Amino acid sequence: MPTYQIGTLADIPEGRGKAFTVNGVRVAVFRVGTELYAIDDTCSHAEASLSAGEFDPEEYCVECPLHGSLFDVRTGTPRTLPAFEPVATYRVFVEGATVFVEFGA
Ligand code: FES
């Protein structure tokens, strides 16, 4: 699977999301300690940027800034309505201080 370098660990603050464009698609990356999680940045309900939502690292949960659905950043699954479709997840990993995302076939 293709791997894309998206930045460094320092680019991804703890406690809020950061969006990157990977292969033409916006991907939201969230950091919990040394763990990273990557999901589609666009909400599955309407046109909203999940990386701009409030992130709760203890719950691994981001709140869509438009209508408030809570998404689990580990699975992409919405925990609350109005969104009911999951968003895609991507494998994200760090080598040294560089962050990579696996994306596409
Ligand atoms: S746009 Fe995200 S819940 Fe509606």
CATH topology: Rieske Iron-sulfur Protein
Broad structural category:
mainly beta
What is the global morphology?
Answer: globular
Helix content: under 10%
How many DSSP E strands? 10
The CATH architecture classification is 3-layer Sandwich
Order of helices and strands: EEEEEEEEEE
**Which ranges are low-confidence, i.e. pLDDT below 50, for 5 or more consecutive residues?**
none
CATH homologous superfamily identity: Rieske [2Fe-2S] iron-sulphur domain
Biggest beta-sheet profile: 4 strands, antiparallel
Q: What CATH first level would be assigned?
A: Mainly Beta
Distance between the termini: 5 Å
Beta percentage is 35-45%
Count of DSSP-assigned helices:
0
Provide the domain count: 1
Q: What are the distinct ligands in this entry?
A: FE2/S2 (inorganic) cluster
Average pLDDT works out at: 95
- Side-by-side strand order of the widest sheet: 2-3-4-8
Radius of gyration: 13 Å
Features:
0% helix; 4-stranded antiparallel sheet; 105 residues; mainly beta; 3-stranded antiparallel sheet; Rieske Iron-sulfur Protein
Summarize the structure.
This protein is mainly β and 105 residues long. The protein has one domain (3-102): Rieske [2Fe-2S] iron-sulphur domain (Rieske Iron-sulfur Protein, 3-layer Sandwich). The chain contains no helices and 10 strands.
Describe the structure.
This protein has 105 residues and is mainly beta. The chain has a single domain (3-102), classed as Rieske Iron-sulfur Protein (3-layer Sandwich). The chain is 0% helix and 43% strand. It contains no helices and ten strands. The radius of gyration is 13 Å and the shape is globular. The termini are close together. The model has no long low-confidence stretch (mean pLDDT 95). The structure holds FE2/S2 (inorganic) cluster (FES). The site of FE2/S2 (inorganic) cluster (FES) has 10 residues, from loops.
